[in-house]
Amino acid sequence: MAIEAGNETGGHRRIRLGMVGGGQGAFIGGVHRIAARIDDQFELVAGALASEPARAMASAKELGIAADRAYGGYEEMARAEAARADGIEAVSIVTPNHMHGPVAKAFLEAGIHVICDKPLTTTVTEAEELAALVKKTGKVFVVTHNYAGYPMIRQARAMVANGDLGEIRLVQAEYLQDWLTERLEATGQKQAAWRTDPARSGAGGCIGDIGTHAYHLACFVSGLELDELLAQLSTFVPGRLLDDDVQILLRWKGGAKGMLWASQVAVGNENGLKLRVHGTRGGLEWAQCDPNYLWFTPYGQPKQLLTRGGAGALPDAGRVSRVPSGHPEGYLEGFATIYAEAARAIRAATAGVKPDPAVIYPTVHDGLAGMKFIDAAVRSSAANGAWVPLDR
Q1: pTM recorded for the entire structure
Q2: Which of 125, 153, 232, 296 is the most buried (most CB within 10 A)?
Q3: % of the chain beyond a pLDDT of 70
């Protein structure tokens, strides 16, 4: 079973997709390519896959991209594809963080829809400029906070919105890894090198890499907006230039409180993303290691295990499920849901109509919120853990 995404235009044709970054030696590019094809909505036809032209061409050849659509740079690609009758309709940006803004700007100005990895940019100012450009061009802009694509996260969001938890009081999120416990970047490991480099990653290390995922998930499910935070950003590994552990207290608008812990030096954790939301009438717990399960505890009653496709599953979860209950769906499918929702939005934009209201994906405004979160956390930590507002 696959998510249908062709109804907005009355037919099905794969959307022509280009990619910037994601060539040989890159992890996330492969993930995006798989996600884009799971529901058969996109076809990769062009790319500027690496900063080095020779590697970009070699990467394109491996992926079966025609030689005349393998580009040595993103600017050349944006100009050339915009001029083609069969040019790309959307671009996937999977570069290191510092290139997200410039690449997105080039393709938006060329009239091409954008699917961008997080974080949106490396500064709030650049993110605000990008949000203004999206508004001006009217193009679809999707930020791949992929965990928002999990069916049981959609279930949790719907339950909160339906009032099943009552008034929200507490929201806690954590995202724990241990892969940077030692100074891996000093060995030349590519993924560690750019993620710990302020010039390529921005002002935040761990907070930008995985903390933004936890933050977006907390906002996405709870429906709350953050008012202010108190942050402690730590760098435990000697010689490292950016934070590798983040501990934050949160004050949400409306009075709810919360905590967020993200770490890449928490030994014993591979990819420990968890979310807890508690209200006056009940609580929810979800963990990415068991993504098809959602624990719901109505106040004064036994804890209930809700499963993807099982009893109590809502249509919000069902519309983004692909296989029958009892069969696991996970990381790649969550990513694919974001791409499927992007396809729906792009098809609707092409047809000059609005997508179905059920279509949900992280937008440029979610990306801007993430940048404000990073900025506020860095400011708070620099002020020895002072409470600071999300907006300056």
Answers
A1: 0.94
A2: 153
A3: 97
